[in-house]
User: Fold this.
Amino acid sequence: MSKVHHLTSPFSEEVIRSLHAGDTVYFDGPLFGIRDLTQIHIFDHHNPPPVSLEGMPCIHTAPSLRKVGDKWEKICVGTTTSTRMDRFTPGLIGQYGVRAIIGKGGLYQGSLDAMQKYGAVYLAIVGGAAALETEQIEEVEAVYFEELHPEAL
Assistant:
């Protein structure tokens, strides 16, 4: 029987291990947007994230942001396909302590094995929900690797 969970990030391993396939998860708190170029920058070019990802959720996103002064405004923050970024998922979880990957389309077995080993979860979003997702984001607090915009962290 599926359950509904209301969580706050960052997540503990214990909380994540209490989730089951089919559960519905709502959460408050910080969320990191991450995409292909950001992960290439981190893993292939050896630039560790400038902020801790320990316990955090990361969303595979195709963000559209606008910089106004020193602030970033959201225009549209939609989820993108996770399988494209699958090769980075074990590292995000094992090296950087990410507890949740949010995306669409699923992940391959190697990523699922890393999630089981380290206590992480894949949270799937239905495609076409970008408008709803964008409404749920209260503010963009920071942009890291700004030179990679629109694929910055």
The beta strands are 4-8, 24-28, 32-34, 57-68, 71-79, 100-103, 121-124.
